[in-house]
Amino acid sequence: MSTTSSSKQHARHSSNFSKGRPAPMPSSPLKASHSDQGIEESSPLAVSDRPWIERPRASSTSSQAAEKTPARSFYVRSFHGQLDPAQYSSSAGLRDQTAELAAFALSETASHLGTSPPSSSAASDDGYPEVIEEVSEPVTPAGSDHDHPGDPAVSELTAMIQNSISQEEEHQQHTNGTDKTMSHRPVSLSRPEPSQPDEHTALIGDRRTDPTKYGLYPDIERQYGADKGGIIHKCRASARRVRSCVYTLSHPKTWSARAIYREAIVHPVSLLPAVFLGLLLNILDALSYGMILFPLGNEIFDGLGSDGIAMFYVSTIVAQVVYSSGGSIFRGGIGSEMIEVVPFFHKMAFTILQKVGDQNPKAVLATTILSFAISSVLTGVVFFLMGACKLGSLIGFFPRHILIGCIGGVGWFLVATGIEVSARLPGNLEYNLNTLKQLFRSDTIALWTIPLLLAITLLIVQRFVKSNLLVGGYFISVAAIFYFFKSALDISMDTLHTGGWVFDPPPAGNPWYHFYTLYDFNAVHWGALADTIPAMFALTFFGVLHVPINVPALGISTGEDNLNVDRELVAHGVSNCLSGLFGSVQNYLVYTNSLLFMDSGGNDRLAGLMLAGCTVGILLAGPVIIGYIPIMVVGALIFLLGIELLEEALVGTWGKVHKLEYATILIIVVTMGVWDFVVGILVGILLAALSFVVQTSRRTAIRATYSGQVARSLVRRPPVQLKFLRETGKQIFLLRLAGYLFFGTIVGVENRIRALLEENAFRDRPLRFLILDMAQINGIDFSAAEAFTRINRLLQKRGVELIVSSLDVDGEVGQALRNVGLFAAESHVQIFPDLNVALEHCENRLLTALYRQQEQRRPRRIGGHLDMPRTRPQELSSSYKAEFMGSSPRRNHLHQVAQSTLDEETSTSAKWQSFKQPLPLMLQIFADLSEKTEDFWYRAMKYFERVVYPKGSVLFKVGDLPDGFYLLEEGILRCDYDLPQGRYSELIVSGRPCGELPFFSQTSRTATMIAEKDCVTWKLDAKRWHDMQTRDPDVAQELLVISLKLTKERMDAVTSYVLTTAG
């Protein structure tokens, strides 16, 4: 016996068995839920005695105490008792409701006596009063497992048939060695594990992927296989290269004269222009950065200009060697001290001076230079750890406008430093009247105005002349002109030194390594050193922000595709640690200098090493040259850099950033320039956080809003129900939330809900259900969670039920909402795992009102069995009228739509009930799709076969060939779609067809159909369909047209739901 025939026989046996038993009475929709507060009385039944309560909750041991001491804050409430665990609302009870409601639409002769449909204890507006049910005695435990002879799901005959079928299938498997039941079992797509490679293994492996893992691809090009060894692999590769070089050097026979000439003479000579340009850039930077490394305006640091230059050269040489030896991916990268760090060094120096006092200059100098070196080591350690831990990408999350503000603050500092250096002011530049008078004295005004004019002139020339040699040539020309006038006017060097036109020469005999003599650990003031730690971390923080900006920018400019920020961070860590250990200061990969160096032909590691060697030569030449450098040259350089940075921060961002961000930049610049650098960074971070909150709060957390007239569930309902839901769907309102909910964004959500509950808005749109879909919520803070409890109280005052969908109750958001008591029993908040089930719940509640009114319009009949006494007709009528004729907008709207829907329903449906199935079923399904009468469809009856499927049966699976078109008479079917883009399910209720498109188009099944309950279907199989086309072609043609209309109706519903969930 084939599997298909056995399944059919199994279905027919079930059908016969079902007909042999009295069918259970369908439940009545007459019983209403609790009415609005203050209008109707609550039901006297306890929660445990209400079978329609859909979500069981654990009782709190201190619930009474919690009720006596209400608390709005969770921090207070948490001390009064344990919170109830959050659970999803029962979907099993929801499926029963859906099947019941479909049965009411299918048969008007069905008995409406008995158990009422499930409903929530929340306020009801369907217009029917609560019916008090009799509470039966509890069932004894002994008979609880076997006292259900009328339930086909647990009948012994059904179990025996299922067992016999399973045993028969197993027997066929062992006998024939072939699984003939694949159409009724999940198809396994798993592949065997690949065997170990051997001599028969293909060079190019099988790259096919598992079709069930759509979108998860392996490394197709095997790009990352070589990096599995990590540091060990790189060390081994370096060792192999060293061994190769040693072998070549130790075996002269392997030498080539042409190769030696090319690599030892021609190639280095070709790099000399780039090396000369790089050396010139280093000298200019030393004069502008290194010269002011110490605050020269103070008498203690007045003679340390040459030491600052020497420390600058040491740091530059260390960075150049590290980067050019393979630490950086950029072969021509230039590293040196950055001008932005100078303000932090001055801050540290003045902090130490204030702590120690100017009476002990040796301690001040020893502590200051040690703090510089320690800050370099600290920066290097942070860089190295970030690179080793692969944290380079995290720096990109820091707001860029904060860094721009800091750069502007450095520009302000440089302009002030330029005035100090040029005007030879003692101490810092103070913003007072005395300083202003000193600047405009006759012997001072020319000292700082000439460098300022030189810097402005160069800025103007740079707008018209684009050359890499412009800056260097300009300042060399300025120095040459200066000494031309010196010679022409016969001015002595002593006069120039005294007048402040040339730097004072360093003390006689001071070598380049003089700064090392300043290190004296016995003279260090450790308390003052500790006071500089905040400035050290601020300097480190500021430096950390530069690398992820300069390095990617340089990679884009040079076309470097293999850039790795983490590798550059490690290189920066090594160079800064070594620089600190050599007693020098921080260094970074300088974007501008590196780009100029590589553009001039220095994109070679040998060029970088040659530049480091030439810089060593300049360092060894000593600081004698300092006594011949015109101050206007250094001052103009400092002014030039300061003006460029201020222009970048204040002019370049005007109109390009948000007004709040620009205000933040301006405040940071002013704070750093007038007050303090560390304070400026802290102010910038605070303003960035404030700006983020303000701007984020302006963006609503509401992704989309839909009325229930647009947002519909995927339940295939009868036409009369669809018509009713189209009119009453505005009582359902859906809010789809997205993003992170915090105290700033939740305000917009609460205001939107308050607007819905206002008197005028509520009259036009009488809400009954508010659905909050949280599928796109990725986090929530305590303020937002508390706001939901406040929103629920507002909704309860209006009698609106709050429903939460697409929420993981055990996740972060679910736990946060549970902690504030939103899911407590008294809150009456329903939780559903997805939006489709939530919409189904709301639609079922609305449809219950339709059939309660239909019950009132039906003549009363006396049942053939004893039941609880019902409310007398005159009392029921009066209560019913009071509910529907009340002032509630929801009741009025439900009453009007229910009346019009029932009035328009054709009176022929009563006549159909006397016909034999499946004719009444076909007439109801095809009523709105065809104008044919019962005489026409009577000819189609003989082609349909009655088939019964027990709960859990699989009618067909994805990929199966279509074997039938189904009309569902009883029960409920679930259609599961598992696509690469996602999964969703449809429900087919009694009175609806299914499987029409693949069957009539002869294409494979696109979904899996499962019986959610015991189902009675009428099936048109392929053989009978062929007979219908031969014997009754007009019926077959009409059925094809109807199938197209059904497909269009179904596609509209699915498309609407997909667009709703995607919006």
TrEMBL record:
* Compositional bias (Basic and acidic residues): 197-208
> Where is it mostly found?
membrane
Where is the stretch described as Disordered?
Answer: 1-71, 110-130, 166-208
- Report the subcellular localization: Vacuole membrane
A Gene Ontology biological process annotation?
basic amino acid transmembrane import into vacuole
Q: Which Pfam families match?
A: cNMP_binding (PF00027), STAS (PF01740), Sulfate_transp (PF00916)
Q: Which UniProt keywords apply?
A: Amino-acid transport, Membrane, Transmembrane, Transmembrane helix, Transport, Vacuole
Q: What is this protein called?
A: STAS domain-containing protein
